[in-house]
Design brief:
3 helices, six-stranded antiparallel β-barrel, rod-shaped, 3 domains, alpha+beta, conserved putative lor/sdh protein from methanococcus maripaludis s2 fold, six-stranded mixed sheet, Elongation Factor Tu (Ef-tu), domain 3, Helix Hairpins, about 40% strand
């Protein structure tokens, strides 16, 4: 009986020691997870957007006839280069030439009457001095001369008007440039002031863009714009915003912007170009993509408390997403430690061993 008691006591002692060992293993603290952090730094960022547009002449004029008529000749087509004063098209001028003929005949008659009345007045002027004719006769001669002078002036004005109307049948270029569009054909009857051709004047060029309205919500863009042909983006030029349309295209929701190009720009009219527009500089915190995580589907980052080495999940407000980073404007402050490596399996309040990059 004494031997059995001794064996039982030894077994109990070993069992107690084993349980104590297991309990010590369960209570041993877990090793802290190693993470890499970066110190958040405040920086300025400048949102930008790239859209397509085309090169246009700074000055374009829609040329039209100043009188109605039938087109009998069209001398230019789209793409033709013209000089100031060149005749671009002509109307049937039969009626205008007839008016000129009538006006010239009227002027000849008025001049003949004027010569006759002048001779009569001079004769009566001599006779009145010798009291050979009555005063009333002289007065009538003077009145007839005045009427003849008025008729002559009217005839001269009528001829000038007829000649001017004759010039209305010719459409002439008002400057050196290139024809960019036309809307008339030979045989077509046009009305006065109806657009016939569009002339792009030689000289400064603009890059014209239709910018979506939302880009202006953060304020007016920066004046400097990087412009480059779509087929040659390696050689951009820096232009300056010259004009922003005050009206919005309600159909497309865009605002037209004209960017003045440098004087040495040799791009052809209607060249397709891209323009990179920059909004005004703003303040934020830029973090690498590896810092991004999620909290219930919302952007978040892990932040480390340097005093306790514990992590906490913070929701952030992302202002801009870039290729290699993103910009935060809320949720993180300058000098906060943000986890950029090792944050996949962290839990809120977990102690970590961190090193700063």
């Amino acid at each position: 009986m004494r031997r059995r008691t001794t064996i039982s006591g030894v077994a109990c002692l070993l069992l107690a020691l084993g349980l104590a060992g297991c309990n010590e293993k369960q209570q041993a603290p877990a090793a802290a997870r190693a993470v890499t952090v970066t110190k958040a730094k405040s920086a300025q960022y400048q949102p930008s957007v790239e859209i397509s547009g085309s090169v246009k002449a700074r000055v374009q004029s829609d040329l039209s006839f100043r009188t109605a008529g039938r087109v009998i000749e069209r001398r230019v087509d789209i793409g033709d280069r013209v000089k100031a004063g060149d005749v671009l098209a002509k109307l049937d001028d039969t009626e205008q030439r007839a008016d000129v003929t009538v006006s010239r005949a009227g002027l000849a008659s008025a001049e003949a009457t004027m010569r006759q009345k002048t001779l009569a007045f001079e004769r009566y002027k001599t006779l009145i001095q010798s009291n050979t004719v009555a005063q009333s006769t002289f007065d009538q001669a003077r009145e007839d001369l005045a009427n003849a002078q008025g008729s002559l002036q009217t005839a001269q004005a009528n001829l000038a008007t007829s000649l001017d109307a004759l010039t209305y049948t010719e459409l002439k270029a008002d400057a050196d440039g290139i024809i960019t569009s036309r809307s008339i054909e030979v045989g077509q009857v046009v009305s006065a002031a109806q657009a016939a051709v569009t002339l792009a004047h030689d000289g400064p060029r603009d890059a014209v863009f239709d910018m979506f309205e939302a880009f202006f919500l953060e304020g007016a863009p920066s004046d400097a714009v990087e412009v480059a042909p779509i087929i040659d983006r390696a050689h951009p030029k820096t232009g300056k915003i010259r004009e922003v349309s005050p009206a919005i295209d309600t159909g497309a929701g865009t605002i037209r912007i004209k960017v003045g190009l440098p004087a040495d720009t040799d791009w052809a009219l209607n060249t397709s170009v891209t323009g990179r527009f920059h909004s005004q500089q703003q303040q934020g915190i830029t973090l690498p993509w590896s810092a991004m995580t999620s909290d219930s589907g919302k952007p978040a980052v892990w932040a480390v408390d340097p005093a306790s080495s514990k992590v906490s999940l913070r929701k952030v407000n992302v202002a801009r997403y870039h290729v290699g980073d993103f910009v935060v404007t809320d949720g993180v402050k300058p000098d906060d430690l943000v986890v950029i490596e090792g944050g996949k399996f962290l839990t809120d309040g977990q102690v970590v061993a961190f090193k700063e990059q």
